[in-house]
Amino acid sequence: xxxxxxxxxxxxxxxxxxxxxxxxxxxxxxxxxxxxxxxxxxxxxxxxxxxxxxxxxxxxxxxxxxxxxxxxxxxxxxxxxxxxxxxxxxxxxxxxxxxxxxxxxxxxxxxxxxxxxxxxxxxxxxxxxxxxxxxxxxxxxxxxxxxxxxxxxxxxxxxxxxxxxxxxxxxxxxxxxxxxxxxxxxxxxxxxxxxxxxxxxxxxxxxxxxxxxxxxxxxxxxxxxxxxxxxxxxxxxxxxxxxxxxxxxxxxxxxxxxxxxxxxxxxxxxxxxxxxxxxxxxxxxxxxxxxxxxxxxxxxxxxxxxxxxxxxxxxxxxxxxxxxxxxxxxxxxxxxxxxxxxxxxxxxxxxx
Amino acid sequence: xxxxxxxxxxxxxxxxxxxxxxxxxxxxxxxxxxxxxxxxxxxxxxxxxxxxxxxxxxxxxxxxxxxxxxxxxxxxxxxxxxxxxxxxxxxxxxxxxxxxxxxxxxxxxxxxxxxxxxxxxxxxxxxxxxxxxxxxxxxxxxxxxxxxxxxxxxxxxxxxxxxxxxxxxxxxxxxxxxxxxxxxxxxxxxxxxxxxxxxxxxxxxxxxxxxxxxxxxxxxxxxxxxxxxxxxxxxxxxxxxxxxxxxxxxxxxxxxxxxxxxxxxxxxxxxxxxxxxxxxxxxxxxxxxxxxxxxxxxxxxxxxxxxxxxxxxxxxxxxxxxxxxxxxxxxxxxxxxxxxxxxxxxxxxxxx
Amino acid sequence: xxxxxxxxxxxxxxxxxxxxxxxxxxxxxxxxxxxxxxxxxxxxxxxxxxxxxxxxxxxxxxxxxxxxxxxxxxxxxxxxxxxxxxxxxxxxxxxxxxxxxxxxxxxxxxxxxxxxxxxxxxxxxxxxxxxxxxxxxxxxxxxxxxxxxxxxxxxxxxxxxxxxxxxxxxxxxxxxxxxxxxxxxxxxxxxxxxxxxxxxxxxxxxxxxxxxxxxxxxxxxxxxxxxxxxxxxxxxxxxxxxxxxxxxxxxxxxxxxxxxxxxxxxxxxxxxxxxxxxxxxxxxxxxxxxxxxxxxxxxxxxxxxxxxxxxxxxxxxxxxxxxxxxxxxxxxxxxxxxxxxxxxxxxxxxxx
Amino acid sequence: xxxxxxxxxxxxxxxxxxxxxxxxxxxxxxxxxxxxxxxxxxxxxxxxxxxxxxxxxxxxxxxxxxxxxxxxxxxxxxxxxxxxxxxxxxxxxxxxxxxxxxxxxxxxxxxxxxxxxxxxxxxxxxxxxxxxxxxxxxxxxxxxxxxxxxxxxxxxxxxxxxxxxxxxxxxxxxxxxxxxxxxxxxxxxxxxxxxxxxxxxxxxxxxxxxxxxxxxxxxxxxxxxxxxxxxxxxxxxxxxxxxxxxxxxxxxxxxxxxxxxxxxxxxxxxxxxxxxxxxxxxxxxxxxxxxxxxxxxxxxxxxxxxxxxxxxxxxxxxxxxxxxxxxxxxxxxxxxxxxxxxxxxxxxxxxx
Amino acid sequence: xxxxxxxxxxxxxxxxxxxxxxxxxxxxxxxxxxxxxxxxxxxxxxxxxxxxxxxxxxxxxxxxxxxxxxxxxxxxxxxxxxxxxxxxxxxxxxxxxxxxxxxxxxxxxxxxxxxxxxxxxxxxxxxxxxxxxxxxxxxxxxxxxxxxxxxxxxxxxxxxxxxxxxxxxxxxxxxxxxxxxxxxxxxxxxxxxxxxxxxxxxxxxxxxxxxxxxxxxxxxxxxxxxxxxxxxxxxxxxxxxxxxxxxxxxxxxxxxxxxxxxxxxxxxxxxxxxxxxxxxxxxxxxxxxxxxxxxxxxxxxxxxxxxxxxxxxxxxxxxxxxxxxxxxxxxxxxxxxxxxxxxxxxxxxxxx
Lengths: 352, 352, 352, 352, 352
Fold this sequence. Notes:
The structure is a homopentamer. By secondary structure, chain A is α+β, with helices and mostly antiparallel strands. Helices cover about 55% and strands about 15% of the residues of chain A.
């Protein structure tokens, strides 16, 4: 269930269904690659330091270590110790309610980002953490696995750009496919907004306002996480760091301008939705007006007529009209004239 | 049809109606010019590199290559390869949902801009891309052709300023006529808003709110694309680049201040429209008020009268008034007095 | 007539009524002055270059050339050619829909400003352009002439500050009296807003909203033109230019802080007006409430009474009450009690 | 009376009641002090220059000259001439509608500030001007005298901090007690807002909106004058000037952060008041709703009953029910059942 | 009780219940520690200077002096005199209504912060002041003691990070646990907002608006104090000061980004609450609409029927229908047809 408190710390403990067997929990997926070769393995935590030595010795090798969110804190800490990662970073990886950010620690850069996607009309967000050092990238997150699998396939293709470049380009590829997720969500939202708009324009209830509220809440989410993500990419495009090649910077710059587009679009959507609420409210007022007109027309026509009927229903002894030959007929005529005049009056006033 | 999702990627594949014959697809319009001579041709993609060599050798010649949006991706890629354009640029040209931007790649500058115009009350926007290098300009877009044709005619005039200057001035001329498009759209909008205002002030429905919503959506568009376009022109006026002469910078500065005027005007229009919605809503409330007054006046006058008639319609045996000579007359008098008092009371309260 | 489209290009061709005689059209008012002497003349366009030579030779002379908005474009162009003015400047002078701005061209500075004043409750705005060079000032605009005439009189006074200083101080004096125009307009507006407020507080219609809308539109105008004008004056107070003395800068700084006051005041006024609209809307709602109460009181009192009268108007054979001696009286009593209770109930509920 | 136009130039000529005797008008209160001695006098304008010479010769003496707002322009001008003050400063002192500001003129600094206080629920604001030079401070304003008198008493105390420091600290003390005035006004406002809130929550009218409007207007004032005053103090804390000691800067920095608190509080109050208006409007709507329910309940119960009574009041010859023994009783039963059902229905719908 | 005026100076004198015995008032809790040893004591004010000398001589010792808010002003002043603290700092400590801020005085840094927590649905805020010098930290505040006790326990653990680092890290730990308080409050609020949302969606009154108002007021508080607190931490992370180690800066940077999260969340909550008010208002309007429909349906059905009954209740001598055999039956039929048509009509119009 979606609730406001998730804006702070949606720190639900990872569901450890996938890793039910005890020993699979400390197995870690790694990819060791350079332009020529590619090694893909599931290793134990104890073997990680061997691979660290490998890349330290061989200046061509690039290492990608991937842990999903279900790993024990102890595994995260073990990994971090091997790569001499600051304790603040460990905390940030384990705590899920982080805002996207980038922290520069001389020898490595730590990045937090949020992945978003729709799952049966519910907006799901997932925290991804990245540690990029010289020739190694450690990623945390991606429970579903779709986003990273795509990049993995790219890596497997020999001669692909991603194989020729370092881990900084790998990082770009990952954040890039994460950004595409934002666009997909916005596209779905655009369609939902169009549907709501069509409904609002012909609606007779205020049901749509609840749908609008839901979308608005989702937009708040996206805005909340795309804004700092843009700061992250723009930092990556600008700042000097040991870890990043100059050629990769341009790619991050491109990413940064794509994220501005995401933010712009959320702003536009919010204005569209505010406009829809305005129209919805104005529709309610307008229909109230219509209802009142019907009531007023009915009352204004029948009240005088009923009054006349009432008058001649009185039991006075001396009411000369009652005894005339055409009294009844004339009364009917008078009533019809009054009714006709009323109808004419309202027609002129354009009430119906 | 206009829809919200176009705010992200209005990436409709170009309708290739114009180029139905297979071989016309790889023919490219070029203009090679300097102060003295002008060569205008439709060439094949394979011939482009010859022209590149020409301008590389002759320091006076300027080359304008134009492709509209219907060209194959392969043609775009071929052109880019000849001029050694970065792969990110290729992607940006092919993908239509770009935000206006400028990217500086040492030897050339890449610019994305949006052209807007009204086509039967629908706001159409079209992506234009520009690659400006030393003595060459490659343009992508302009399906309709009107905007570029005007500049083409200027170029054909011998001795014109545009012939004497380099491709940077040509670029200015193109963006300038694109900016004029923004002004034309805003002028049309201004007239539409005036029409809507006149309607709103006398309107009895809330129909105008839908029109206002449409204009508001269009304004969101214009704001969305004029803001970054101003950033582009202000960058061109400010930044140092191999490609631009100092004298051209002033022209881009002028463009930049014109675009501020565009943005100002969209802001003003949005405030005007918000004011109109306020008035429209207040009109609805006010009319509801008027309707209620009519109802209340009618009810307040006839309810007591009907009550009196009802009383003397009762069938009690002992009702002394019924048998008096002037009972009926007095009853009528009482009724008239009550009605008159009511009318007087409402007149005094200024209800009608 | 005031319309939205004037926000873009209120480019109405000057009405050439004043200059009906053909030859008066190329006559130009000039003032040549220094601390000691003052020469005031109407000359032909062909004579202008003589005067330019005069000030070029004599380092003390200051030249003020004034053209109003009715001059032919050709005259503007002739003047500009004599003083070697950039073609962009010419265009900006001729095109009336400019945003206030300042452009620095090495040897001269070009300034656009807007003059505003009330003419029978309509806000009129007029474009003024200034070209300030070393020892010459060319002004375009001021159809009515009042604003410039005042400065002209100052110039005629021997020993006045304006005579002792250069054309940069003359420029300051002109922009200063133009700024006073903004204050006058705001003062008038303040009085109008006070009047509207008094009306709104006792109003029974929503007529005031149209007046509020008019003032709001006018405020949008003033804000639109005072904001960039402040940028102009603050640029003049800050930037280094050949044309301006250091001592004049302080005066422009003062102007700049006056214009901040103008902008502040427009903001304050807009908040006041928004508050008035809120009150006006709340008044409408409140009055609707009052009307509904009257209706409800009337209905609630008479409906039960009429029902009782209706019951005893039924023609059943066996209705024992009808034949009792005091049936009628008791019925009346019951009715009075019910009515009294209703009145008491509404009094307690504070409905009236 | 409070009116909008005072936002521009509340330039009411000073009421000269206090200084009715002709010669008191050019008498000026001065204080000449240093750590050891204090001289307090009322002198004539002609004697001022003597005192100026005194402080020029004696590097320890500090001079405070005070003029209230009732002085003639000529006196202001005389003072300014003695101290060689720029003509722009003279104008700013005389013209009362100034925005708080600070102007740095090499040898002295000119400051305008606004004092505010409540006088029987009306917000009064008064312009104070300060000229601070080396060892002299000239103050203009403080009609009531309370604020300055407090500082005067401090000065009279031998050995007090204010006696040991220069006129820059005296200036700080004056602006500090002026700032306390802002806090006092805000505190009073806070209490008024609390009162209004209590009223709004139980109110049956929209009377409170007028009170809210008044407070909102007052807040606009305070915001308008505290914002630039903060700029003044922050300038004084930052800028280098001959006049100010480094140790005094810290005090102005403290003042600056106090004024941020003032601005924050006005913002908070404005949000609170907007919330109150929202609640007030929603109360009106809600009460309208309640009134309508009463009306609807009454109508829905009695209309069918009256209809039944009406049916049996018809005079058809052949109405079999009329002649039955229990017709009347059954009719009553039917009526009671209908009424009871209605009441049950509305109870279930929670209408009352 | 919560009131608006507390936004300025919630300067309630400390409740001195805890320290009822006269002599406990000048006893001060101190902790003297370094990596190896820890001394914890309650000392008299007169003994403080001894401890100051201790840390001045021993470069390893760190001293934490803690005073809660109940101490006499004289104690505060005594402490400040011993450590040569500026008089402005003393005032700021004693005056409780301070905005969070940081002031750099060469040898020490003065920090004001606000602690917030919920106490039975009321938001309590408490002012904490910190003076950090070289190897000493003086803290004022924390009446409840919970927050500081936690840190005290950390300190008692030998070998803990906090013992190994200087007082700057101790300061970080204190501000960190204070920041966690903000997160706790926001989490509670998130849950309250979820509850309110559920209520609003099904509510029939506008009671929830008062709850929303309360939360909104609390959010204003949090925003008011978290914003400047972030400025404090960001200053601590950035500025050079004698007092702070470079390694601690990173921790303050982390704190700063956590506080951005706090601010973001308050903004998100405020938007959520505004949306709830919108929905609440729209619900009221919508229900009014529903009520009106019921009224209109009832009136529209029964008014014509009652009219017909009224007509045949007239006492005219010559009313042929009255004497026909099936007149009564036909009248009933006509009535049923009219009622049926009305019901059909409203069904078609989807009124019920």
